[in-house]
Design goal:
Blueprint lengths: L1 H32 L7 H21 L1 H14 L4 H18 L12 H20 L19
Helix pairs in contact: 1-2, 1-5, 3-4, 4-5
């Protein structure tokens, strides 16, 4: 039963981490869109819509590498916030390097790459807050002292 519950916690945490990455990316992209506060209602609705759509895209593209990191963390009971933020940052950096820069003075780590890597770090942090702190805890067998006859 604990494993089934853990599966739902991991799924929920991954969904919220994807949304956090999308929100970070959206806020990082505001400078490119020339949107200056205060925003109109239509612009706010557009930002929310873009964030939800980007969250679905993040969940789709980052699913396999994130699940590899999650399975490793669950298997070895890695609960460090550093592991999750680094894993998210590395996954974000890898995807950021796949997107070509539009800047004519191409820099390997341009603004787009930095924003996507930062979104990965945010996703890793949110995942750790929800599910990563208890990674591998479902495997523990209660001790005899905890079980009452």
């Amino acid at each position: 039963m604990a494993l089934i519950w853990r599966f739902f916690v991991i799924t929920f945490a991954f969904a919220l981490a994807s949304f956090a990455a999308a929100a970070t990316f959206t806020l990082g992209a505001l400078a490119w869109a020339n949107l200056n506060p205060p925003l109109e209602n239509f612009e706010v609705a557009l930002l929310w819509m873009f964030t939800f759509l980007a969250g679905a895209g993040v969940a789709f593209f980052a699913f396999v590498p994130a699940m590899i990191a999650i399975v490793l963390a669950e298997g070895f009971s890695w609960r460090s916030v550093l592991f999750y933020t680094l894993a998210g940052g590395v996954i974000g950096l890898a995807y950021g390097l796949l997107i070509p820069e539009t800047d004519p003075n191409f820099v390997l780590y341009g603004r787009m790459t930095q924003v996507i890597a930062g979104a990965g770090v945010a996703a890793g942090l949110v995942y750790w807050l929800i599910a990563g702190r208890n990674a591998g805890a479902w495997r523990k067998v209660p001790s005899r002292e905890m079980v009452k006859p």
